[in-house]
Every structure is written in structure tokens, then in C-alpha cells.
Amino acid sequence: MEILSPRVLRALERFNAACPWDHNAHYHRWILRQLPRRFFNRALDIGSGSGDLARLLAGRAATVEGVDSDPAITAQAQKLTPSALAVTFTVADAMAEHPADSYDVLTCVATIHHLPFTQALTCFRRHLAPGGTLVVVGLSRAQTPADHLLGALAVPANAAMGWLKNKGRPSPRPVSMTAPTRPADMAFDDIVRETRNVLPGARLRRRLFWRYTLVWHRP
User: Fold this and answer.
1) Over 60: is that where the pLDDT of 169 sits?
2) Are 110 and 84 in contact (CB under 8 A)?
3) Are 50 and 109 in contact (CB under 8 A)?
């Protein structure tokens, strides 16, 4: 189902390339609103990238651990993080065992579509302490008319956000991706069904900018 013509899409892609912005960081403040407002003990950020979210979590947690499979971006995260923050970054597989037995908060942004989905959720559940909160921002494959409509609405909204975040000026240099990416292969309805089997009571919602969110509080 095509809502925008290929010519319009190409024009918007050129505009977005000239005025780029971080789609994942857009959700960081939203993630914080899903978490306890007061201090908690341990947090784990899966797929921590350059560490922006981990550093935000450090404002509420005693310790924060970020894990990412990319050594270069992990080194960058360490370099960008002030020594006063109780944040550590480790090169590790997202499905590996982690230093602490359990965490009060576990976050995962734009990473789970690189992993075997059900096994990843099972791993996250195992590492989440009773009463803990899991927040996932993920990517899904457009399948239904609602998916395609939301994707079409996101295109001009994406351009508007790029314009605002770049203050109406083209970026002096292109934004380069520092981690391997691939398209999502699961449709949102499949994500919902598999999540319900592993995390009963989880809240899932389609979002703008080709994302969905998942929030689960462990009993």
C-alpha cells in the first residue's frame, strides 16, 4: 500500500539526510518516565551504544552497566562518560550472563530485533529483580494497513523533527552509523503475541518513527 509517491519519498530522504537526528534518543526521556522516580539500585542497558541512555539512568541508579557487542562504540561510551558517574561499559553479547544476578531496571533500545526475540525476552526476565521494570524500544516490520499509515505519517513528522533539531540548518556533516543495522523481520502483531507468552501483562504500543514500545513490571 503506497501512500506517498516514490518521488516524494526520495525528496524526504534527501532532506532527512541533510538534517539528521537520533530517533532512539528521542525516546530516552519517555523511558525515564516509565521508571521509578526515586533512587533504585542496579540498572542494565542492553545495546548501550555511545552510552547516552546509561548516563541518564545514572541520575537515578546506584550503579549502571551498559553492554554492547561493538568494541569501538563501547570505547567511545567510556570516553564520553565522566568518572564521577557510577556507569561501566562492557563489550558483551546481549544474551550473555551479566555481572549482577538481577537488576531493578533493564532497558533495551533498537537492539532486540538483532536477537532471537523470544529467547531475548526470556533472558531479560531472568535478569530482572522482583518488582523491577523492563523497557524496550524496538523496530517492527510494517504489515497491516495501520502499520503502513503510521509509517507514512512518520515521514513528514521525521522531516519536521530534523528541521527543528537542526534549527533549520543542514547538518555540516552526515551522521554515520556506529553499529551494524538490519531491518526488523517481525511484524508488530507477532511481537505482541510472543511477548504475551513470555511476559504476561506487558504493555505494547505502536509508536511514530518506525518504533514500538514494550513495558513490563515483574511481579
Assistant:
1) no
2) no
3) no
Other beta carbons within 10 Å of 11: 13
Cell 500500500 identifies what position? 1
Q: pLDDT-derived band of residue 37, with 50, 70 and 90 as boundaries?
A: confident
Is there a contact between 69 and 181 (Cβ–Cβ < 8 Å)?
A: no
Of 52-66, 88-102, 138-152, which gets the smallest average pLDDT?
138-152
Residue 126 neighbours by CB distance under 10 Å: 11
pLDDT at 58 over 80: yes
CA angle at 49 for the pair 123 and 108, rounded to the nearest 5°: 30
As for how many domains the chain has, the answer is: 1
CA distance 62 to 143: 41
Rg (CA), the chain: 18
What's the confidence (pLDDT) of residue 89? 97
Residue 50: how many other CB atoms lie within 10 Å: 24
Q: What is the pLDDT of residue 163?
A: 47
pLDDT, mean of residues 35-55: 92
117: nearest Cα among 209, 198, 48: 198
Domain containing residue 196: CATH number: 3.40.50.150
Confidence of residue 149 (pLDDT cuts 50, 70, 90): low
Q: What domain range is 172 assigned to?
A: 1-219
68 CB neighbour count, 10 Å cutoff: 27
CA distance 41 to 63: 6
Q: Which residue intervals of 19-108 are DSSP H helices?
A: 28-33, 52-57, 71-80
